[in-house]
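S1.2 Input.
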Amino acid sequence: MTRRPKGAGRKRTVKAIGLMSFGGPDVLQEIDLPEPVPGHNEVRIKVAAAAISPTDTLLRAGQHKDRLHHLRPPYVPGMDAAGEIDAIGTGVLGWQVGDQVMAIVSPHRQLGGAYAQQLVVPADSVARIPAGVTLAEAATLPMNALTARATLDALALPPGAVLGVTGAAGAYGGYLIALASHEGLQVIADAAPADEKLVASFGAQEIVARGDGVAERFRAAHPGGVDAVADGALLFEQAVPAIRDGGQLAIVRGWNGTPGRGIKVRWIRVHRYVREAAKLDQLRELAESGVLELRVAGTYPAAQAAEAHRQLERGGVRGRIVLLFSS
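S1.3 Output.
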């Protein structure tokens, strides 16, 4: 009788950070998932770093239940990953095992999100990491920068137009200001006193105090109203007075209000850009040229994801907190 080698036939697993039920940071736990195998036009990434964003905390808290109803737990958060390609599916062109890449991923799928040692994604969700940056830094780019890109694409403002940005010191706000300024828009942004130099470094030409009344301060600087507001601070109706008649309001989270005065609401959904590799690669080029600054606010071993979530929810984070995965 032929004996099978010890362990033969066992399914290989990878470590991930996920949750079985929704709740606070403590629901995050280390879990074992089946080793993912790339299919047609897919690559597998050995993840070194996964950035944490507010989207992840919302998923963890159960605010994405409607997008996860077709799945069974565990749920794996995370939309940003960076690492090394370690397997390639059929039909993939232009990639080799060993290439260092960054990727955007939707966590609302059966395979889950980026908080995993190995991650399978479509090849058109991947770009090379910017030259000269760490994998932790590269992991901060995809989701937030693509959200900023989607915002500017939706607004389609001509050079010289005035864009107001709320929540300017955040990751989304920083990338948005840098891209907008690079493309010839005039940017007015909000900031706390401690963040004014930071927001100015992104490229904002005018800065007003953040907080209650920010729309009135935008309007004071531009009496006719700004052409559009990108509302990273989730002010919603409080941001509307800043906008001129017929202008635009870009929102990144749900709001059912009606601004009036012919103002158009642009709903920004980065999930529409998860397979826009060409746009992600353009962002890589802008990071390499110094237009976009990649900011890591801190790093945690993946097993300490709960504490990383707690730090993000305490507020005041400038840049992205990043989870680090070991082999």
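S1.4 Remarks. The chain has a mean pLDDT of 95.
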